[in-house]
Every structure is written in structure tokens, then in C-alpha cells.
Amino acid sequence: MATPVEFVELEVAKAARGLRLVTVGGIPSPWSEAAKALFVCKQIPFVAVRLNPGDKEVRKWTRSANAPAAMYEDEPAKTGWAEILELAERLAPERSLVPATPSDRVRFFGLAHEVMGAGGLLWCSRLLTIQAGIESDGARGFPPFVGRYLGERYGLSKAELSRAQVRVQEGLALLVETLGAREYFFGDKLSALDLYAAAAMNTFAPMSEELCPMLPPIRSAFESMQSELPALPTLLAHRQRIYEQHLELPIRV
Ligand SMILES: N[C@@H](CCC(=O)N[C@@H](CS)C(=O)NCC(=O)O)C(=O)O
Question: What is the pLDDT of residues 198-212, one digit of tens each?
């Protein structure tokens, strides 16, 4: 059973040493959940601070507009998924979440980028959820005010939207094909890709409110997209195993 994540106020985190992690508040944002999951699985102690939309002070501290941000000792904040993984690997190399062979590593980083990177699966599913909200005046997708806020930050051009639909299908197909009938994506061992895919599924098909509480408009947004963003059964079964065996349930955001 995973150790529960400890959330603290900003001032407490600033005064602490070691690892401090800023994560999105009230939403199981997959980039934030993935970062938490890495440190939980590697048993690296940390305290977490929630980032909310108007939080100027947290942003001033991390010098980042969004979350996650991993603050380790006096090092600059790590904000991209790959640099957060690099930090986690450096702090606990003995519990590696990166495959051991070079050819597996190449596939691992390619797949992880397809899921987590700018223009990848999650980036594109977010664009589609923003666009649906604006188009339907909030009947589907994010409420329009959330959509406008996110749209300004993460792009919303016509070209990006049509590419996004294709990318989502391709990203899901790649994950299903790579996982096959196995328990983990790489060999018989947990890797960060298992954590990324599990966190991703929380936006495609959120777990129950009991297991994954979140702000009600965000739950409605994710749930309303299920016909456009199909949650594939193998990936949902994989998420369940990963959360039950390696992570904290209920998820706390
Ligand atoms: N920096 C991350 C991406 C993080 C990201 O997209 N965060 C969004 C999740 S919706 C966020 O914090 N949004 C809230 C905001 O922009 O205020 C990466 O490159 O891996």
C-alpha cells in the first residue's frame, strides 16, 4: 500500500528541504498525477502543494505558469515530464522506472512522449475537450470559462484541432498494441509508462467520485467526452491494476 501524499501550505513547502511537488488542485490532471505517482512508487519522500488558477504566489515560487513543478533543494523547478522523470531516477536509481535495455529505452521514451508530450495524446484530448466546451456552450467538454483559460495557454487553431483527433486515436492504439495482454508495458516490471497511461485514463474515464474526487464541472467535462475520447477496456483494466497495486486510492487532488 502506497504512503499517502502529504499536502501542505505554500509557506511550509518553502521552508522544507528535499523534494516539494506542486500539483494542480481539485483536478486529477494527468501530468500532476504522473509526477506524484513517480515519487510515490520510488518511495521518495515529498510534500505537495496545490496550484489553483489564481495562485500568483505559488507561480512566483516555481517560476512556472502551470503544474506540475518539482522543486528539489535549491535546484531550478523541473516542469516537463521527462525532466521530472530524470530527477526521480537520479534520487532513487535503485527503483528504476525506465527500462534497462537501450532498445526498450528508445521505445519507452517515444511512447511516453506520445502520451505526455506537447502535441501528444493528453495534449490533444485536452484540446478536444476545450473545443467541445466552447462549441456546445458547456453542454459537453470544459465549461467555456475554463476552456477559454486553457485554450489561451495550450493552443486551439483549426489545424491543431483536426490533427488532435487523429493523434488521440493513434495514441490510444499505440498503447493498446504495446500493452497487448501483458500486465505492464515493458517486460514483467512497472515502468513510468504504466503510471502515465494510468493517469491518462483518469481524464478519459474518471473513476468513481469515491476513488477519484474532483471538482464537479471537471468530472462532467471528462464524462461528457466519452463518445469522442473512447476509454478502451484493456487500458481501464490496466489502470485499475496499477492504482490498486502501486498507488494511493482514493486519489487525492
Ligand atoms: N509542463 C508539463 C505540462 C503541464 C500542463 O500541461 N499542466 C496543465 C494541466 S491542465 C496545468 O497545470 N494547467 C493549469 C494552468 O495552466 O493554470 C509538461 O511539459 O510535461
Answer: 999 999 999 999 999
Percent of the chain with pLDDT over 90: 87
Task: Determine whether the shortest distance from the Cβ of 67 to ligand 1 is under 6 A.
Answer: yes
Q: How many CA atoms within 13 Å lie on the side-chain side of 157?
A: 4
243 in ligand 1 pocket by Cβ < 6 Å?
Answer: no
Which of 95, 118, 145 is where one domain is finished?
Answer: 95
pLDDT at 153: 85
**Do 154 and 229 sit in the same domain of this protein?**
yes
For 217, residues 6+ apart whose C-beta sits below 8 A from its C-beta are 142, 143, 146
Q: Which residue's CA lies nearest to atom 11 of ligand 1?
A: 66
Same domain membership, residue 199 and residue 160: yes
CA–CA separation, 156 and 154 (whole Å): 7
- Tell me whether residue 253 is in a domain: no
Residue where one domain finishes, among candidates 68, 95, 122: 95
Nearest to 2 by CA among 30, 37, 26: 37
pLDDT category of residue 1 using cuts at 50, 70 and 90: low
Is it the case that residue 41 has pLDDT exceeding 80? yes
- 59, 33: one domain: yes
Judge if pTM exceeds 0.90: yes
Q: To the nearest whole number, what is the mean pLDDT of the chain?
A: 95
- Can you give the residue range of the structural domain that contains 62? 6-95
Choosing from 29, 55, 122 the residue with most ligand 1 atoms within 8 A of its CB, the one to mutate for a pocket test is 29
Whole-number Å distance, alpha carbon 230 to ligand 1 midpoint, is 22
In this structure, the residue with its CA closest to atom 19 of ligand 1 is: 80
Domains contained in the chain, number: 2
Examine residue 251 and state whether it is found in any structural domain, yes or no: no
